Amino acid sequence: MPDDAGGRASTSRMRDVAQRAGVSPMTVSRALRDPSKVSEAVRRRVEEAVRAVGYVPNRLAGNLSSMRSNVVGLVVPGLDNSLYAPTIQGVSAVLRASGFQLMIGECGYSQEGEEALITAFLAQRVAGLMLHDTRHTALACEMIRRAGVPVVETGTIIPDPLDMVVSYSNHDAARAMVLHLHRLGYRRVAFVSLPAANNDRSRDRQRGYRAALAELRLEAEPRLMLEMPPGLAAGAEAVVRLVQGDAPPDAIFFAGDVLAAGALFECQRRGWPVPGKVALAAFDDIDMLRHVVPPITTLRLPRTGIGRRGAEVLLDRIEGRSRERVVVDLGFEIIQRDST
Amino acid sequence: MPDDAGGRASTSRMRDVAQRAGVSPMTVSRALRDPSKVSEAVRRRVEEAVRAVGYVPNRLAGNLSSMRSNVVGLVVPGLDNSLYAPTIQGVSAVLRASGFQLMIGECGYSQEGEEALITAFLAQRVAGLMLHDTRHTALACEMIRRAGVPVVETGTIIPDPLDMVVSYSNHDAARAMVLHLHRLGYRRVAFVSLPAANNDRSRDRQRGYRAALAELRLEAEPRLMLEMPPGLAAGAEAVVRLVQGDAPPDAIFFAGDVLAAGALFECQRRGWPVPGKVALAAFDDIDMLRHVVPPITTLRLPRTGIGRRGAEVLLDRIEGRSRERVVVDLGFEIIQRDST
DNA sequence: TTGTAAGCGTTATCAG
DNA sequence: CTGATAACGCTTACAA
């Protein structure tokens, strides 16, 4: 407790405001939450009293009493991954506009981590939950069901959501890019993704890649498929392994993180022309991909929109404006640039 | 409320657990928080009852009653800025290990935004506050003082903190880089930063630049100082303006965001050799700077450490292990690479 | 070791 | 429009 010297740390209650304004606490409560329910005179006296005593409402008490909550819990796989930033920002913007607070936690890409966070958020009695992953432990599902809390999953479109989904189809996006590369004339398209274990998005993308090959009556060659950890360095390693391997690809589709950029930087270092030696495509429209030389072909995903729309449908449910279990597919876009 | 079909959404209370275990609610409370205070037999019965009814403690009620809180509020200027990610992650890791929750908000680089968030967090009765900015509205300071909440500021080392500071000196870091460039032989070092209005970090860096020049008995030329918005595009624009201007610099120090990378990409596009045509230095050790061609000289800042250490000193105070108003300078490091 | 009583600071409800 | 009263679900303090 800093300084008891100047003004001691005292938190004033509604009661104090009431006394000072010469009304009952109940009237203060009303004046604060819906000024139209009290007389003009009282409203002003209360406002002044609030300022005078420096009153800050106690939402813990308010929430407990009203059995409502003004906080939403958001679980992301990893805070370090810059891909989640736009989504978080979208969520944050919408929540703030409605007077909600955002509680955030990272599950570390594990279902157990997610379960722990869900438990913690439920204990805080959050009004709603946003989950990036779409696979959960049985206990997590059970707890959510019992609590009756609305939930939005945002990682990828799935057929059997817990409740609501707002996302895009990782499967369709990956498939579309492979078809796009084929249309451009590439016949040996390699595929590099993040590890698919414990990651629905990666798995969906792999399935999309295979689906496209099947449609094109092309064989899925194991040596053209790689799983790499996230990071620029991994992308660099991947491009070297593929290009220097037997029967190298003419194009590489990097379905994750900044792998494609790492690969391009490696090509620059080695003097490999892109797309002359090998074409490169990426999965996310991060700013960097537009500025490197050459700019990299990629998918534009509705990251911010997922956050915004996700928060909106969640609030619609929380505030009783809707009872529907919506599934929103926000789509994607292919950005053709000079790397392919 | 999803599905009332299978099992209706009922939240069980401690009372229910107590009944089922054949003990009083108080005993359940004890069994849950400090199992050593109840008998072995009771502990087991309670545990089973908890599982049986799917009990999830209500921390709103708990916090209200105990007049303690297990949530910490964090205010960042912008969630989109990837620079804050490591700090947030550090905070998150430390808090989780202590059973604390993280409430997060973005103030949009404005003091008013920060004030609004502080008010909201105080209303949630957070146990502590972490602020990135080091300048605040008078009301914000007043509210924090009255609430008696411990606070950590993390943006830059300042002489008159609200309470505690954990950071590095932006002034010293900028100064050190300019001296470093001078030592390498560069005599006309330009300086590009983010707008300094409303940004203590930028201002500190500008002061550091000037301080270095003064020490070197060099004149601060206005045409060698630029303020640019964040982003790769701004860096590209800056390098062009400086290099094509009158009396161009031999080195450019980009003190913010990804400006330096944007500048390098522009040089690549134009075929300007770096550092042949102009040398480039950056301010933050983001992964990209190490992988581009050539790799860019920069400063390594203790981003994650600030989050971790900041959360630690905050928890020390919250949990009464310390009463000190610490100031922690985590320092910085110059990473010399091929761009200078 | 366990239980009882009295709040914590609000809001819902109902009466005036 | 305003106020009294009883929760909300838990913990503190004290008693048994």
TrEMBL record, chains A, B:
One of its Pfam families is LacI
Give residue ranges for domain HTH lacI-type.
12-66
An example of a GO molecular function for this protein is: DNA binding
Q: Could you tell me which SUPFAM superfamilies the record lists for this protein?
A: lambda repressor-like DNA-binding domains, Periplasmic binding protein-like I
Q: What segment(s) does the record annotate as region Disordered?
A: 1-29
Annotated keywords: DNA-binding, Transcription, Transcription regulation
Q: Which SMART domains match?
A: HTH_LACI
Record InterPro entries = HTH_LacI, LacI/GalR-like_sensor, Lambda_DNA-bd_dom_sf, Peripla_BP_I
Q: Where is the signal peptide?
A: none
PANTHER family in the record: LACI-RELATED TRANSCRIPTIONAL REPRESSOR, TRANSCRIPTIONAL REGULATOR
The molecule here is called: LacI family DNA-binding transcriptional regulator
